[in-house]
Amino acid sequence: MTHAGSGDRRGQRGRWATWGAVLLAGLLVGVVTFLVALAVGSSGDPADDPSGRDAVDTAETSESVLTTVPDEVVARRAATSDVVTDRSEPPLAGVRIALDPGHNGANGRNPALVNALVPDGRGGTKACNTVGASTAAGYPEHAFNWDVSERAAAGLEALGADVVRTRADDTGVGPCVDERGTVGQDHDADLVVSVHANGSTDTSLRGFFVVVADPPGDPQHEAESLRLAEDLVEALADAGFPPSPVFAAALSSRGDLATLNHARRPAVLVELGEMRNAEEAAVMESTAGRQRYADAIVAGVVRWATGAPVTP
After folding, report:
1. Helix (H, G, I), strand (E, B) or coil at 302
2. How high does pLDDT run on average in the chain?
């Protein structure tokens, strides 16, 4: 049997022990909180860098780290409210991309307009535009270019990019190649991607390639144009598309493309495949195939803008 007085004392001692434990735990939490705050304060905040460069280069997401950002993108982000201070932002936030879907749906019905001469960017002239190629079944390049570009635009915008286009639909004429070429500087874009498909007469040929201007329309952007071309080549190959055997590393250098000659931004023209090759034509004519091409363009742009491959 337990005496009542002894039970009261033991109950009181138990309550004191409980209160003591609570107080001790509170003190420990306070000390830990102080130490964590001290450590964070001493490490600095990337957002305090007004250039935005440290924030872009060092901040992390759960998926990847941006390692290299072109100066043009850093400058835009630093000059706007889109400066990346948190890697939870979309990877293309603050990047403006000009997409040029080659040709147009009404070009073939307006020969006088598309054959009018315009500056070629080299001191000469060339036709305003052309009709473009088509598959053996009659699927036209202008429709392919438009559909792939619109799909790519949707993917780029979903990643935070601002996308401008050289044409608003697939039912008009032009614009002319000189106007297409200046779209980058006209809209202060960070890069220009002109979307096409090739029409070689040799139907056995297949594969994509990417064209850069040679000599460059603007030497300041020569290296970035080449890097953009290489990133698109890598992305298209990763997506399972074969590179063209005609050009080493699927890279072509040309001086006769007015779209590239007039560009004053990093710019490339991508020939996504051969429309007269039966195997590639089947891919281009399919919705799933055009989505694959668009996804590869998006992946290549992400590589260029961030220095890291896109994560599915």
Report:
1. helix
2. 80
